[in-house]
Write a structure and sequence with these properties.
This protein is mainly α. It is 63% helix and 1% strand. The protein has a two-stranded antiparallel ribbon with strand order 1-2. Helix 3 (90-103) packs parallel to helix 5 (123-139) and helix 13 packs antiparallel against helix 14 (266-274). The longest helix is centred in the N-terminal third of the chain and has 18 residues, at 3-20.
Length: 389
């Protein structure tokens, strides 16, 4: 790339890296490549430029010559990524990963992706694979799609390609995604396209997503889109999610939105929850928010709990706080559990705290719980701790 286009790519890569460094991308951590995926066939795009997608054969890796990129720098060896990921300085690693991806020749993306998959799992490897997929989707989307169709464990490449296709032609990308018959690739293609649609029409994207079958061990597309929406307009997302009964409990759309909202502005999220008319939903929502908030700032969460009147909501919040801090402060956790007004809820909270402490510290947990004031009857009712864990 040259000039402004290359600068834009590098800036986007750096921004993505800054966002992702330190986070593990579970969807890139699938096992080694397995048997070839089923062939996929895509509908004609609206623009007519790409009439179909087939599983075209990729040339053998040994025949993929290293070529000049932009007429100045040679494409780096695909296996050079291993050396880059061993660099100690995180800033140097990010810079060199970005440079590696930017300089890679069109013919070497498949080899680089396969080489990256063989490296030890971790946030840096996942970042490199994500950047490879984004860049490959930009320079040769058909080749990237063919690669994903031929190799298990790289389905997310399809999502990156369709995200970029949708930025240029949303309806064409959606039509093409609908034509993919492999379930995993269809899911990823729709995920990529709908993430773009949701930027301007989240409600419309959710409506389309509701008809996309869920894939085992993955979240539904509606969950993904609700989370995306709640990052930009959590109040609107929550209002819509509150009317969505497609799932219940902690998996419900509203719970998904409120957990995301709690990471950004827990007091605003609690304000929404406290205004809910259904007491059961209100209690569950407050518990979800406080659990997330207390993991970030237990003191602030405690101050909020102390500001609300006694009752079911306050008890649920206290239980959530106690459960969250149990692993770091047994005495505080037990104190909050004992502050619960309802006797049954108080016992349940003390049992939950005790189980967490015993799981973390089976050798000394009983003694620490007794010192904190947990009744002997509760400790005797729990399964014995497992020595040596």
């Amino acid at each position: 790339m040259k000039g402004k286009n290359r600068d834009a790519w590098v800036k986007a890569a750096i921004a993505l890296g800054a966002l992702l460094v330190g986070l593990a991308f579970g969807h890139w951590s699938a096992g080694p490549d397995q048997e070839a995926a089923k062939p996929i066939v895509a509908a004609s795009s609206a623009s007519g430029d790409e009439s179909s997608l087939t599983t075209k054969a990729l040339p053998p890796l040994s025949e993929r010559a290293t070529t000049e990129n932009s007429g100045k720098q040679k494409s780096p060896r695909p296996d050079a990524l291993a050396r880059i990921l061993r660099e100690r300085n995180s800033i140097d690693r990010l810079r060199d990963i970005t440079s590696f991806v930017d300089r890679l020749s069109q013919q070497d993306f498949a080899a680089a992706m396969l080489a990256a998959k063989q490296l030890p799992s971790g946030a840096d490897r996942d970042l490199a694979m994500r950047l490879l997929a984004v860049r490959w989707a930009e320079v040769d989307p058909d080749d990237a799609l063919a690669f994903a169709a031929e190799h298990r464990g790289f389905d997310q490449v399809t999502g990156e390609v369709f995200q970029q296709l949708a930025t240029r032609d949303l309806q064409g990308a959606l039509a093409r995604a609908e034509g993919i018959t492999d379930p995993a690739l269809h899911y990823q293609a729709m995920r990529g396209a709908l993430s773009v649609m949701a930027l301007d029409d989240p409600a419309g994207a959710l409506k389309v997503a509701s008809s996309v079958p869920k894939i085992a061990h993955t979240e539904s597309l509606t969950q993904t889109l609700y989370r995306q929406w709640s990052e930009t307009d959590p109040a609107a997302a929550a209002a819509t999610a509150a009317q969505d009964t497609s799932d219940d409990g902690w998996r419900s759309p509203l719970s998904q939105v409120l957990r995301t909202w709690a990471s950004q502005d827990p007091e605003a999220a609690l304000g929404f929850a406290m205004a809910m008319s259904d007491s059961q939903s209100q209690t569950r929502s407050v518990s979800d928010i406080v659990r997330r908030w207390s993991g970030q700032d237990a003191s602030a969460a405690a101050a909020w709990i102390n500001s609300i009147p006694p009752g079911g909501v306050r008890d649920a919040a206290a239980s959530a706080l106690a459960s969250t801090v149990a692993s770091s402060d047994v005495a505080t956790a037990v104190g909050w559990a004992q502050s619960i007004g309802d006797a049954n809820a108080r016992t349940t909270a003390l049992e939950r705290v005790s189980r967490r402490v015993l799981w973390q510290n089976p050798k000394e947990g009983v003694a620490s719980l007794q010192r904190a004031g947990v009744p002997r009857s509760i400790l005797q009712s729990l399964p014995p701790p497992q020595p040596g864990r």
